[in-house]
Design goal:
Elements: E1 9-13, H1 18-29, E2 33-38, H2 41-51, E3 56-59, H3 65-79, E4 84-87, H4 104-132, E5 135-140, H5 143-147, H6 153-172, E6 178-185, H7 191-194, H8 198-206, H9 216-226, E7 238-241
Parallel strand pairs: 1-2, 1-4, 2-3, 4-5, 5-6, 6-7
Helix pairs in contact: 1-9, 3-4, 4-6
């Protein structure tokens, strides 16, 4: 089943700021009924207003499978379907620290948000997508998941896990009308990046051949291409958005 933009409903996790909010604004501008999902209710409401009055807000902790099941199931029951899921919720954890000095609790938290958050939400929406033989899932990964960033072991490993999940889901669902892809950006100027140590950001930026950060507009445009109805013959793939850093 091929749908146009205005027939679709999207959930964007991590939608209260940064990459998630930029993608939500892009989808909303294309006519998609857009739902922002985040944990911070105040930031979420402000973000919803910035997208548009028709945008909806869904406050949920993506690390909690039961909470996701409850919140998303109610939304699916009301709307009838979820056509697009963009998993943008993510954290870096403690950075600029050697892997043998990392606090195991920080590694656990990073994996719960970055990997299990994406696993939980896709697990809940996939049955609805399967019923209609159509869907688009986009996991926001990272160049760190492909190449690894020194000083960011937990983040790099969690994003590598997201890429592995994308490949597995894409193959499993290849005959269903549902595509599952990932997007691996290098440094994008977001509040999450601004909160990182300057030395860590400089290390990552120096590795980019273009010698600049990516913009939110660039990542939103590529995300819209990946989840478009017409992008129907690409699945299980990790798209590059790294200014030339990724060459394979």
């Amino acid at each position: 089943m091929k749908k146009n933009w205005r027939e679709q409903q999207a959930i964007v996790t991590g939608g209260a700021s940064g990459i998630g909010l930029a993608i939500a604004k892009k989808l909303h501008a294309l006519g998609v009924t857009t739902v922002l999902c985040d944990l911070d209710s105040k930031k979420l409401e402000a973000a919803r207003k910035s997208v548009g009055e028709s945008c909806r807000a869904l406050c949920a902790d993506v690390t909690d499978l039961k909470a996701v099941e409850t919140a998303f199931s109610e939304l699916i029951a009301q709307a009838g379907s979820i056509d697009i899921l963009v998993n943008s919720a993510g954290i870096t954890g403690i950075t600029n620290v050697k892997s043998y000095e990392v606090d195991p609790e920080d590694v656990d938290l990073v994996f719960r948000v970055n990997f299990f958050g994406s696993f939980n939400t896709s697990r809940v929406v996939l049955p609805a997508m399967l019923r209609q033989n159509y869907g688009r899932i986009l996991h926001i990964a990272s160049i760190a998941g492909k190449e690894g960033n020194a000083g960011m072991m937990a983040y790099s490993a969690s994003k590598a896990a997201v890429i592995g999940m994308t490949k597995a889901q894409g193959k499993e669902l290849a005959e269903t009308g549902i595509t599952v892809n990932a997007l691996a950006p290098a440094v994008i100027r977001t509040p999450m990046v601004e909160a990182m140590p300057a030395a860590q950001v400089a290390y990552m930026t120096e590795k980019i051949p273009m010698k600049r950060c990516g913009t939110l507009e660039e990542i939103a445009d590529m995300a819209a291409f990946i989840v478009a109805p017409e992008t129907s013959f690409t699945t299980g793939f990790t798209f590059d958005l790294s200014g030339g850093r990724a060459t394979s």
